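Exercise 7.
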Amino acid sequence: MKQQILQWTLAVLTLFMMPSTGFAAKWKAEHVILIGLDGWGSYSVEKANMPHVKKLMKEGAYTLKKRSVLPSSSAVNWASMFMGAGPELHGYTDWGSKTPELPSRELNAHGIFPTVFQLLRESSPKAEIGCLYEWGGIKYLIDSLAMSYQQQVPDYNKYPKAMSEMASQYIKEKKPVLAGFIFDSPDHTGHVDGHDTPAYYAKLEELDEYIGQIIKAVEEADMLDQTIFIVTSDHGGIKKGHGGKTMEEMETPFIISGKNIKKGLCFDDSMMQFDVASTIASIFALKQPQVWIGRPMKQVFK
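Solution. The predicted structure, written as tokens, is:
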């Protein structure tokens, strides 16, 4: 009898000591495609001719009330989007920050504030993780050592289709688990021609075509049924600038559509820039570091 009890006890202990992979939280999708449009303000969405983007809105969930951190400029907000925290914690405070102006509250093994790319890399060492960007400042914010592939695309003024073509090729060849494609031209157009101008809306219409090409590449790679698309921005703008505290500068769209995402949901719940990283982390069942303050937008998931 004692021997039977001992055998039973050992069996139970063995069960609890086994690797927990079979009990790990399931991913909500196998792929996430993050498309960023630098300088894309929420004020423009209703008037813009962007059929591919608006189809994602209709078939998914969205808010036009996501707020940037301050200042409403590029590097500080892309950092917040990737790093799950604001400038007070990650330390990137200016439009062109390449290194933190404030000491980062925490550093990962690569010597940079924890990013969602790094969290996925640690969780899935063999995952294909990539980022293509038009503005060179992005490379300082993504944690390059966590990436399988990262590249600045050729000058979009000379080669406007470079991003969509390189992104499509990358998707078809590598089928990335997480990929970011960051366009810069809305911001450039806003500075040169002005926000809320015919030139600005023409640029958004052009970019919508490129987004359609990226979606088509996902479909041709046989990934569509297992992909979540996120389309968002770092900041908006007013007249020919940004960085201030107007809603035109601070409110940006957040659109999420695809596998396990509710359809036709417009949510106005409080969302900040750093909540993007948390939402992506939630898709891949990643544990947030304590230093992150972002919250996943759980209401968008089925």
